[in-house]
Write a structure and sequence with these properties.
- Keywords: Endoplasmic reticulum, Hydrolase, Membrane, Transmembrane, Transmembrane helix.
- It holds the Pfam family Peptidase_A22B.
- One of its GO terms (cellular component) is lumenal side of endoplasmic reticulum membrane.
- The protein is mainly α and 364 residues long.
- It is built from 14 helices and seven strands.
- The protein starts with 9 loop residues before the first strand and ends with a helix.
- 38% of the residues are buried.
Amino acid sequence: MAELEPATLHNETEAAANGTGKLGSSPEGTALAYGSLLVMALLPIFFGALRSVNCARGKNSSDMPETITSRDAARFPIIASCTLFGLYIFFKIFSQEYINLLLSMYFFILGVLALAHTISPAMNRLFPENFPNRQYQMLFTQGSGESKEEIVNYEFDTRDLVCLVLSGVVGVWYLLKKHWIANNLFGLAFSLNGVELLHLNNVSTGCILLGGLFVYDIFWVFGTNVMVTVAKSFEAPIKLVFPQDLLEKGLEANNFAMLGLGDIVIPGIFIALLLRFDVSLKKNSHTYFYTSFLAYVFGLALTIFVMHTFKHAQPALLYLVPACIGFPLLVALVKGEVTEMFRYEEQPKDESNESNEEQEKKEN
């Protein structure tokens, strides 16, 4: 996956204030755009968190997802800042058209793979049982004999190929038309994959990551025009968009409200961690997951309200981070589970450990 940077939630009302855009055509259209962005943000968080639980149950370390440590979390805002400023410089120096052409090809490949992985579980249920499903393997090695080393070892089947073809059609649509629906399909796929496959190893790491990006988002939105400039210049599916003039212009609408994927993925991986913590408690309740999920709804709704009131781009993490950390922590204080929450840490399982656990359960 590509590195997903936190971006600013904003709309074209800011451009209108500067004389460079048009205001939403109607209050109904604006409300529809904001509501749609909110729903689209919640979908990958909810389903990505559920899928992350199964992803974390890999039988060995090779099946485990990418784990973010506290060291990674501390460095991430610095890396993200360098990347963001580098893109800003590139857009100032080089032709925006050629940069976006290269980025479009790059995100076309990533988007097709991400969308195929996203729709694969649903598509597998649609295939009939007698579907001729053949197995394939793509293997690249380096060297020979005992020194032979695997570079790529990818196994797939006929169903995966069908998903890739369908995703490829969306990818071609995006390349040719840059349509906002195609953009959103890729954006949702990136977000869901990010929440599912990027795992925080513990709650402390999550607090470090969200705290660092809290400062990052505020600085680059309020301190400079870098974030907004890059978000508007960057023609790639790194943001979800929805037209405010949809009711007037239909699918050809072009006055968009936008939400950066980072404002979905970053809080999303923390919410997914809390769901896995709920599962580890073995109480058949998802208290912390639902609390953090509702906290995200509150934070994003507050962002939209402030942005609409002041007609200015807002750093969404300014509102999301305190809500997503504060609400679950308050619940943990009430329930007396703060220590358990911060002690929870995911550990890779191997087959022997899993079989031993099953044996112990049978003996008990």
